Structure formats: structure tokens, C-alpha cells
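Re-run with default settings, no changes from the original entry. Doing this only to confirm the output is reproducible before filing.
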Amino acid sequence: MSDEEKTEKIVIFATHGPEDPEMASLPFVIGNAALALDVKVTIVLQGVGVILATKGCYEHVFAGGLSPLKELVDSFIELGGRILVCGPCINERRITAEMLVDKAEISAAGKVVTASIEADAVLNY
């Protein structure tokens, strides 16, 4: 594959939940922008950020000056973005797979490390 054909990849770590609407929304703002530029994007939800992957949560998160988180996440998924959710983090919070939004993948550290080393850039929010 030539450099011109190479697909750029980024991984965005999101560690904030609904308690900080701006920091919870920014990974999806950046993720959507990257997807619009044909960059493959994986958002990794860790720590309290995993709460964003629970059904019904992101519908109630709004940050001033940004689109509602529901619109950002729905767009991110529609554009082909990937959401990995930290398995140990959801277990600690007693969140089950059935409680997660569609398309969210429960992940262990190995999958996150692999995605990160294959990425051209890794961002953290």
C-alpha cells in the first residue's frame, strides 16, 4: 500500500462522563471531524467515561456551544466510528453489556493497546 492509499487512524481516550459535559462531548466533536476527513476513529471510554455508553445517558448531556452529545454520538456511529468500553471499568460500576448502547464494544487492555499502536495519533480527554 502506498502512502497515498494509507488510511489514517486515531484513537481518542475519553475519561469524563456526564459530570463534565464539555469534556464528555469534545472527544465526539473531534471524532466526527476526523471521520469527515476519512480518518478511522476509535473512541475508548475509560473510568467514569464508560457511563456515556449506557443507554439513556448521553441524551441528557449538553455542553454550551456544542451540539448535544446525543447528536454527536449518533453521528459518530453513523459515520463508522468505533467505541470501545473498558471492561473492568464497567464491571466496577456494575454496568452490564445489556445496559450499553448499540455498537459499543466491551474491551480489555490488549485491544486498546493494539488500537493505540496502530494509530497515527492518540488523544486524551
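DSSP finds four helices and five strands in the chain. The two ends are 32 Å apart (CA to CA).
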